[in-house]
Amino acid sequence: MPELPEIETLKNGLQKPLIGQRIVSLEINRPSLRYPLSTDLSLAIATKITGLRRRARYLLIDLDNFYSLIIHLGMSGRFTLQNSDYLPQKHDHVIFSLDGQSQLVFNDARRFGMIYIAHTKDPAITLEMFKKFGPEPLSTIFTTKYLKNKLVNRRLPIKNLLLDNQLVVGVGNIYASESLFKACISPLRLSCSLADFELVKLVQSIKDVLRKAILAGGTTLRDFVNGSSQPGLFQQVLSVYGRVGQSCRLCSAVIIKVKQSGRSSFYCPNCQK
DNA sequence: AGTGGCACCTGTGTGC
DNA sequence: TGCACACAGGTGCCAC
Known about the structure:
Number of helices: 7
Distance between the termini: 27 Å
Radius of gyration: 20 Å
Strand order of the largest sheet: 5-7-6-1-2-3-4-8
Largest sheet: 8 strands, antiparallel
Order of helices and strands: HEEEEEEEEHHHHHHEE
């Protein structure tokens, strides 16, 4: 579920209804998700929401006390805005009540999600993992030149490297497979074997696939919904992900599924070399 | 340093 | 119908 386009969709949808709202109370139904929830989360109480941002797969909610809530959906997390008549559901772990009588509900069946609170100005001061992040794929920093420098000494399959947040953030299992299809590159290719023209195509493909997925409101295979509880639509136009045994949309060859470091990769053996 | 494997946890689908 | 099992979109830790 939640790769870059899904979190961007979540941010875009929640921005308007949340900015200016005051958090009046906090209900924690489970003291730990992936990690124990910090008691510092109470710093969010009686603050006003001033902005929403995204970094990698994290949603940042800026508060007027110069702290930010930092939310990760894990694999199955949902973060939705609900009305006052909302009936609590199983796995509603954290609920923020807002002064407009609505509530922000964090629901996560698998509990791989995380909620932190950190200084607004630079979460990397507080959170170690933010220091390690590579560039945003849709930023001007993520270029062919950057990718070439990073891959030159690496001997991993390119698919594995695209999932590495230190190389580039926000590209997960779905969009790695889709981007490699669009770039006509097999997920099995060793990264150091990619020619310059293939790196150009790969960078363009990653940006293009992510932009289109954002426009479609993300991909919903099972769990993802936006802040208004609506699913995404990009799964309707996936080229290879989840299409094992089906025909390639370009050449009609049969889509193949392979395991790479325990994760499924999908590709067209005819289009991708 | 780079890499693979595993653990974290629950729900769903499949096969017997 | 009931059970066992495999598998799922992410991330971080550990051993090699």
